[in-house]
Amino acid sequence: MDRRDDQFGPLLLSLAIHALFLAGLWAATLRCETWNDAVARLALPGFFTIECVAPLNLEGPVIEAMLVDYSPPKTTRAAVPRPRPQPPKPEPPKPEIEAPPPPPLPPAPPPAEDTVDRERVARDGELPALDEQREQEERRKREQIELEAQQRLTEMERERQQQLEDIRRLREAAEQRRKVEEQRLAQLEDRQRDARERTEERQRVEGLEVRENAQRAGTGGTDNDLRARYVFALQQVVTMAWLRPDTARPGLRCTVRIVQLPGGEVMSASVVPPCNGDPLTQRSLEAAVMRAQPLPYQGYESVFQRTIDFVFRYDG
Question: pLDDT higher for 89 or 311?
Fold first, then answer.
C-alpha cells in the first residue's frame, strides 16, 4: 500500500507539470490582445499583462520570393531486361550512357535582407531631399506671410498718412476761413465805428449850430415872443437827436413833456396825448430828448420852466 502511494504522488506531479507545459504552449499561441483581455476579465494582477508591439510596417513595394531547388536533377535509367542465360560469348564493350547536361540555373534572386537594405538606403537618401524640400516650402510660406504682413502695414501707414493729410488740409481751410471772417468782422467794425464817429460828429456840429441859432434867436431876434423861440429851439435840438424809426410817417404831431433842471439837464421825458405816432415812434421821441440834453437854457432864463410841454412836428 505504501508503494502505491509513493508511485501515485510522482504520477500526479508529472501530470501537473505536463499540464502546465501544455498550458504555456497554448498561451504562447494566443494573440497579445487576447491575452490582455483574458487577464482583465480574470482580474489578475497587472504584471500578467503583456506590452503589445505594433507590427513593423515598412514602406515600399512587397517583395515576393520563390524557393528554387539548386540540386541537380536525378537521372533515371531505363530498366534493362535481364538476358537469358546463354553461353558466354565475348561481348564488345558497351558505350556508357552519358547523362544529359543539367538545365541552366536561373539567376539567384538577391537576398530579401539585401533588398530591404537597398530600399532603406534609397529611402534614407531621399529623406534629406524631402526634408530640404519641406524646409524650403515652410520658408517660402513664412516669407509669403511676412510679405503680406509688411504689405498690410504699408497700406495702413499709407491710409494713416492720407488721413493726417486730410486733417491738415481741413485745418488749413478752417484757419483760412477764420482769418477771412476775422478780416471781414474787423472791416465791418471799422466801418461801423467810422459811421458812428461821423454821425456823432455831425450831430455835435449840428447841435452846436442849432444852439447858436437858438441863442441868437433869443437875444437878437425880431420876434417879441421869447417863449415861442424857446419852444422852437427845443424842437430843433430834439429833431437833431431823433433817430427816426421806419414806422414814423410825415404829419407826425406828438406832445412831449420834459422835466428839467436849470441849465438844461433833463430829469425825464414822456409823450403825452395828443400824439398820432405809434408806440415805437413815441419811445424814439423820448430817447431823442434824453440824447439832446443839455437843452437850450442860456438866453431863455426868463421863460425857463422845470416842466414844459411842446409839440414835436415831423412833416417829412
Answer: 311
Alpha carbon distance 258, 304 (integer Å)? 12
Q: Give just the sign of the alpha carbon dihedral 145, 147, 150, 152.
A: negative
Q: What is the pLDDT of residue 217?
A: 44
| Top-confidence range, 75-79, 194-198, 209-213, 221-225 | 194-198
Q: Which residue has the cell 515576393?
A: 64
Give bridge partners of residue 313 from the DSSP assignment: 253
The answer to whether the beta carbons of residues 308 and 295 sit under 8 Å apart is no
pLDDT of residue 10: 81
Report the pLDDT value the prediction gives residue 257, as an integer from 0 to 100: 93
How high is the pLDDT of residue 16?
86
Say how many C-beta atoms besides its own lie within 10 A of residue 206's C-beta.
15
Instruction: Look at residue 115 in the predicted model and tell me its pLDDT.
Output: 57
- Which amino acid, residue 314? Y
| CA dist 76 → 39, 66, 93, 98, 104 (Å) | 61, 27, 21, 11, 19
Reduced to 3 states (helix: H, G, I; strand: E, B; else coil), residue 266 is strand
Taking a C-beta distance cutoff of 8 angstroms, is the pair 257, 310 a contact? no
Q: Where are the domains of the chain?
A: 144-316
User: In one letter, which amino acid is 152?
Assistant: R
Give the closest residue to 256 by CA, choosing from 243, 271, 242, 237: 271
Dihedral over Cα of 226, 227, 228, 230: its sign: positive
DSSP 306: S
Residue 267 sits at φ, ψ, to 5 deg, of: -90, -40
Tell me what percent of the residues of the chain surpass a pLDDT of 70: 65
Note the pLDDT of residue 147. 92
Share of the chain above pLDDT 90, in %: 26
CATH 3.30.1150.10 fits 144-316, yes or no: yes
Torsion angle, alpha carbons of 169, 175, 177, 180, to 10: -140
DSSP letter at 262 equals: T
